[in-house]
Task: inverse folding
């Protein structure tokens, strides 16, 4: 029987929160996103409290390369043994410590401030063990789920489309969407978009997939029906 634990961690300077999703499977655990390193002890306590101990974490899935999602990945791999998986198009962010490695936009101020806020020193950098692509299945890692390529927030952003059941508070499949969508004040497209056209296409892609519940990178879960398709951020 699968079960889901939502781990919500504070971002630096009270900039909000970020979600990590720990899925218990019959063969161990899968963690979707890892938060930023400023709350590492809190994340570790949550994992240990859920029974996720060294050797039981089978896979660390990163929805994209931003440091508030990847900040603890290298540490968790070293301590718990889970392999790191992400899309190839965002892997350079983690390998080089540069959130803007493959982005075409981003203000000069944000480019300057992001490394100071999240800090991605050499010890936090890593090469993923697996490169995920659209349509990949995670069944061999114990999770009944499919990878969706969902560019827009970043070129290599992905979503994880999983069977509902114990993971869903409502009928339908569930989507772990990274930062494509958010629910900070209300369900909406992510507030930071690198490619508006790609973002719009990704939103359209979701409409025919029978998704009931969305688990965003930031904010509370919500029903996909609360998001209306369109050309870009709402």
Result:
């Amino acid at each position: 029987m699968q079960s889901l634990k939502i781990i919500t961690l504070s971002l630096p300077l009270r900039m909000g929160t970020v979600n990590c999703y720990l899925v218990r499977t019959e063969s161990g655990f899968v963690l979707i996103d890892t938060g930023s390193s400023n709350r590492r002890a809190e994340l570790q306590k949550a994992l240990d409290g859920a029974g996720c101990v060294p050797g039981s974490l089978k896979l660390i899935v990163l929805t994209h390369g931003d440091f508030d999602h990847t900040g603890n990945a290298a540490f968790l791999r070293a301590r718990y043994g889970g392999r790191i998986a992400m899309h190839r198009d965002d892997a350079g962010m983690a390998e080089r410590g540069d959130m803007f490695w493959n982005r075409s936009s981003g203000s000069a101020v944000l480019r300057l401030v992001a490394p100071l806020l999240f800090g991605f020193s050499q010890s936090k950098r890593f090469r993923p063990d697996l490169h995920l692509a659209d349509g990949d299945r995670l069944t061999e890692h114990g999770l009944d789920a499919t990878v969706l390529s969902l560019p827009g927030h970043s070129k290599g952003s992905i979503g994880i489309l999983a069977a509902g059941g114990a993971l869903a508070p409502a009928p339908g499949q569930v989507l772990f969407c990274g930062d494509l969508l958010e629910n900070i004040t209300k369900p909406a497209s992510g507030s930071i978009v690198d490619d508006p056209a790609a973002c719009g296409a990704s939103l359209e892609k979701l409409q025919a997939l029978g998704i009931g519940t969305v688990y965003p990178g930031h904010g509370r879960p919500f029903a996909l029906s609360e998001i209306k398709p369109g050309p870009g951020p709402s």
